[in-house]
Amino acid sequence: GESVGLHLPTLSVQEGDNSIINCAYSNSASDYFIWYKQESGKGPQFIIDIRSNMDKRQGQRVTVLLNKTVKHLSLQIAATQPGDSAVYFCAERGNNAGNMLTFGGGTRLMVKP
Amino acid sequence: NAGVTQTPKFQVLKTGQSMTLQCAQDMNHNSMYWYRQDPGMGLRLIYYSASEGTTDKGEVPNGYNVSRLNKREFSLRLESAAPSQTSVYFCASRSGGSGNTIYFGEGSWLTVV
Question: How far, in Å, CA of A30 to CA of A40, rounded?
């Protein structure tokens, strides 16, 4: 079945450093991937997405890399700030009715001042 | 533009009681979703509605019912609450087509005692 997982449940970084959050997925037919940020007590917030026909996409301070060969997704945050502290989820969309997403378990990013 | 609004934010129920979680979106989105989030786990899809007038089961539908009242509103009902339904519930919506982002509400914290 489809599954999405994260390698590191907690990541602690120094303010100003770059952060890399990793995600593995198992469904080779997935065609769309999203990263969400969830702050305590709030709903997930869209960060960036990427389609399977791309291997890199950049946003403001964030970059998503997709390696379809090893079914691996990563989120890079440049110059990490205290406001980046949150739980980050990756999600994939396989070939299913309703375009449903499958979410990973989440990685907590802690930014040390 | 409020996005996705869900109520109530907090609710305590006794086992066997019933309740309805309300959700409304003002983005004219076609698809709406209900997820639950449990500690240490990712979001799991309960039910979804691909368009007005249709509803379908997700990954964990048992113990729940839904109603797509109109294009804006998608409610989740617990007919006889059980302690296993203690969770955080998130409503979400998506405009439709491929690659469109799913937007989440702020969450409803439900405790069943």
Answer: 29
User: What digits encode the pLDDT tens for the residues A28-75?
Assistant: 889 899 999 999 889 999 999 999 999 999 999 999 999 999 999 999
Write the DSSP assignment of chain A as a string of letters: ---EE-S-SEEEEETTS-EEEEEEE--TT--EEEEEEE-TTS--EEEEEEETT-SEEE-SSEEEEEETTTTEEEEEESS--GGG-EEEEEEEE-S-GGG-EEE---EEEEEE-
Work out the pLDDT band at B98, boundaries 50, 70, 90.
low
Integer Cα distance of B6 and B92 in angstroms:
9
Nearest C-alpha neighbor of A65 from the set A7, A24, A107:
A24
Q: Rg of chain A's alpha carbons, rounded to an integer?
A: 14
Quick check: A8 contacting B, CB < 8 Å? no
Residue B113, Cβ density class (10 Å: 0-12 exposed, 13-18 middle, ≥19 buried): exposed
Give which of A73, A100, A108 to mutate to test B binding, by max B Cβ within 10 Å: A100
Rounded-to-integer distance, Cα A30 and Cα B104, Å: 21
**Separation of alpha carbons A80 and A62, rounded Å:** 10
In whole angstroms, what is the distance from residue B58 CA to residue B55 CA? 10
Chain A nearest-CA residue for B33: A100
Within an 8 Å CB–CB cutoff, is residue A51 touching chain B? Answer: yes
